[in-house]
């Protein structure tokens, strides 16, 4: 891979280009204006965000933007380009197309979360997605019971709650208080067409304005990917920073946009 003549290296806003493998992140070209320690740390963060994003189907590239930073990490060529807010990524990404794809190992088939309330909600969502024919799921959350009708990742609330947000809050509250959360599955004679809610509504990934994740969570693999990236981003975000993340596939099609820290 001959990168010496890539236009990005001499462009406005460029700070450094790194390569990465399973063994680490390595400098390929660093501008004299770069804070080497800081930029190296940012490149490592970008690779970790890319690793988290890889739980999303077809994820290939992560673009990170803050008020003073633009970073692009891609599996194509195993490269990270770091710059300031004026970095022109259009000079970089086309050069990576067709390069060998670097695999990033994951610690598990699906991301693991320390938040037991979230993990319990994910377990409920798994059950909703597995309903190949319409079913009634009765949730016993502490001393409350909620009934929903579920079919292939969609559901309606039959009794016990008014919104998915209410169900989520009850589950998280019960888990936090050490109360039992359980469910049972039964048959239903009702039609399962035009069900109102999706998994993203139960997980808080629906449209909530500028802070929302711009992705249609159509399956649990999507949900795990969005939550994995959000968790990784929260670990590097500082309160005053507007952290915008974009995930693209190998053809550069955007599959997710997410904003954290917007005031």
Question: What coarse outline follows from CA principal-axis ratios?
Answer: elongated
**Share in helix:** 25-40%
Strand order of the largest sheet: 2-1-5-4-3-11-12
* Percent of residues in beta strands: 25-35%
So what's the CATH class of the largest domain?
Answer: Alpha Beta
CATH architecture assignment name of the largest domain: 2-Layer Sandwich
Q: Rounded to an integer, what's the Rg over CA atoms?
A: 21 Å
Tell me the structural class: alpha+beta
Distance between the termini: 42 Å
Question: Could you spell the SSE succession in H and E letters?
Answer: EEHEEEHHEEEHEEHHEE
Outline the low-pLDDT stretches.
208-212
Task: Tag the structure with descriptive keywords.
single chain; Beta-Lactamase; five-stranded antiparallel sheet; 6 helices; 12 strands; 27% helix
